[in-house]
Design brief:
With 607 residues, the protein is an alpha/beta fold. Helices cover 28% and strands 23% of the residues. α8 links the parallel β10 and β11. α2 packs across α3 and α7 crosses α8. The protein is globular, with a radius of gyration of 25 Å. Bound molecules: adenosine monophosphate. The site of adenosine monophosphate has 18 residues, from β14, β20 and β21.
């Protein structure tokens, strides 16, 4: 049922928004959850301005800690100024894109800040992403340069198709000759891109989302108006800079002058060592995906803020971690709307929601659009739904990106003119693809996806992209990839019909996919089928595949027999982690069994 007739408002030329507000009072209110109006959070600034204001205000405050190394805000500022100088000398300036691929640590954050100080945008890559994918993204974004560690330089230089100039960290970070007059950014504006993040694309190629300096600078102020991270906080820095939740850690800290404690790689993925390290280092703020927090082997009493986001938050986690002494939040949002658009404060025993819109953001639910009704990128008229009804969640406000780089068709489908806009900031809306409804007239409830996008350990994955790469492998015909729960573990399962008489070896498939896709997108299981189950319409019947018994599910046929008490424990733990898969001594945990860092952490903790 629809309470309010669809009535698009007259499109206004820019500048007329204010005068249009008067009649609004006599119209029925549209069912939109608006965050508080806070024009003071929208400033004429870029990320570098925000950092530099803090460095000038608290120069002696510790900004970064990594192992034994401490850097004050003034030291970080100086180091990043040197990087910016060298980048400007190399021809980088406002409006340019610069790839960033470096292991975690202080150098990475100095390089990132150095790019920010030129007014250019960074395009970050995860440590373990294949060079093939890096080349595709750099080319797609027409990146001018790639900043990397010496270790990776050779691998990238050997990769064909990288035309960006390669600059190594040691060149950029080394001292400048005495008396060098530092070159500073020129002409950087809030409209320039601040960063580009590539996410999985359903058609087989990742898609780039460009976020402006205006959107991200506003986001930092808007979200922190609710989170309340302070100068005296010590914030855990655990996210890869290729994931936009890293802005909550790094740049909200820079905004307020907090200290970032950067975890060494071996601690960041270890559920026993990490909480211990957070306690020992007096960390007070943790931003995390629920999957990571769920693995923590003990409480961290000193945490005064826990901010969860990136995927559905289980109620049990809140009941375990929410205490009267700490604030716990659930923040929600897609990369396309600049990190987060809504926030809920979580309390033990109360239902988990994604809460209310952040200041200056708006949330609304529209009737789900049948994908077949979108022809040549033209989307049928939107129908807003009353509170309580389930539909597709849309986001408005200054965080909504311009669209996907070089993908006008996809941009036109997902980023639409907003018929219910009250001002210029709300002129467009982003269709998230998430199903949602408003509960009690105030709280948004996220109910899953309306499409094939999934989240695996917080990583966003379009199943279509894996299917396309799998279909390119020799000996593979039709493909379908699903996220299935095996035991209590989410796993990607790839089904395929062999194109020849002999199905390809799983090892070869895994290696072929690992060349093109990040490790979290390589399925744990590969299942050959004689034919794909299909609906009458001819589409693949995913429901059947969801419950299809997996071929190796027979009691782990082909497993080696444990021969010592230690092996008995090890085999039992591996069988639990990889249900139905044969466990043999010669198999590799990662490349053969499909293990990943969280599995490694889990098995370490079990053993
Ligand atoms: P990303 O662009 O990687 O941040 O992924 C965005 C998607 O992750 C959203 O569209 C949701 O499907 C999901 N997501 C993010 N945060 C939450 C949350 N707090 N609760 C439920 N789903 C979430």
């Amino acid at each position: 049922m629809q309470l309010f007739a669809f009535q698009p408002r007259r499109r206004l030329p820019l500048g007329e928004w204010a005068t249009d507000r008067a009649p609004f009072f006599c119209m029925p209110d549209f069912p939109i959850l608006h965050g508080p109006d806070r024009p003071d959070l929208l400033r004429h600034e870029i990320l570098a301005d925000i950092f530099e204001a803090t460095a000038a205000r608290v120069p002696h405050k510790t900004a970064l800690i990594f192992g034994e190394r401490h850097l004050t805000y003034a030291e970080l500022n100086d180091a990043a100024d040197r990087v910016a100088h060298r980048l400007i000398e190399a021809g980088v300036g406002a409006g340019d894109m610069v790839g960033l691929w470096h292991p975690r640590g202080i150098e990475l954050l100095v390089l990132q800040l150095g790019i920010a100080k030129t007014g250019a945008a960074w395009l970050p890559f995860d440590a373990d992403v294949p060079t093939d994918r890096i080349a595709v993204c750099l080319d797609d974004a027409s990146a001018k340069a790639l900043l990397i560690s010496e270790l990776s330089a050779q691998a990238v230089q050997a990769q064909s198709g990288v035309s960006a100039q390669i600059l190594t960290a040691s060149e950029l970070l080394s001292a400048l000759p005495e008396g060098t007059a530092l070159r500073r950014r020129e002409g950087a504006l809030p409209e320039h891109t601040a960063y580009v993040i590539y996410t999985s694309g359903s058609t087989g190629k990742p898609k780039g989302i460009a976020i402006t300096q205006r959107s991200i600078s506003h986001f930092l102020r808007s979200e922190n108006a609710r989170l309340g991270v302070r100068e005296d906080d010590k914030v855990y820095q655990g996210f890869s800079v290729a994931f936009d939740m890293s802005f909550e850690e790094i740049w909200i800290s820079y905004l307020v002058g907090a200290t970032l404690w950067i975890a060494p790689k071996e601690i960041a993925g270890d559920p026993e060592a990490l909480p211990r390290a957070l306690i020992e280092n007096d960390v007070t703020v943790l931003h995390a995906v629920p999957t990571l927090l769920a693995l923590f082997a003990q409480d961290v009493p000193g945490l005064r803020i826990i901010n969860l986001g990136g995927e559905m938050c289980p109620q049990a986690l809140v009941d375990k971690w929410a205490t009267p002494a700490r604030q716990m939040f659930n923040t929600y949002g897609p990369t396309e709307a600049t990190v987060s658009a809504s926030l809920a404060e979580l309390k033990a025993g109360e239902p988990v929601t994604i809460g209310e819109a952040l200041p200056n953001y708006g949330l609304l639910v529209i009737e789900v659009i049948d994908p077949d009704s979108i022809v040549n990128g033209v989307v049928p008229p939107l129908k807003i739904l009353p509170f309580g009804e389930t539909g597709e969640l849309c986001i408005t406000g200054p965080g909504v990106a311009a669209g996907y780089l070089g993908r006008p068709d996809l941009t036109a489908e997902k980023f639409l003119p907003n018929p219910w806009a009250r001002n210029e900031q709300e002129a467009r809306l982003y269709r998230t693809g998430d199903l949602a409804r408003v509960e009690n007239g105030t709280q948004m409830q996220c109910l899953g996806r309306a499409d094939d996008q999934v989240k695996i350990r917080g990583f966003r994955v379009e199943l279509g992209e894996i299917e396309a790469v799998l279909a390119e492998q020799p000996g593979v015909g039709t493909t379908a990839v699903l996220l299935r729960k095996e035991g209590d573990i989410d796993q990607l399962v790839a089904f395929y019909v062999p194109s020849g008489a002999t199905p390809p070896e799983v090892k070869a498939l895994r290696a072929g996919l690992a060349e093109k896709l990040p490790p979290y997108m390589v399925p744990a299981r590969f299942e050959a089928l004689p034919a794909m189950p299909r609906l009458q319409s001819g589409k693949i019947d995913r429901k059947v595949l969801k419950s299809q018994p997996l071929s190796a599910a027979a009691p782990a046929e082909g497993s080696d027999t444990p021969e010592t008490p230690a092996e008995e424990v090890l085999f039992a733990a591996l069988e639990k982690l990889f249900p139905g898969q044969p466990i043999r001594r010669e198999l590799d945990f990662f490349s053969d069994l499909g293990g990943h860092s969280l599995f490694a952490a889990r098995i370490t903790s079990t053993l």
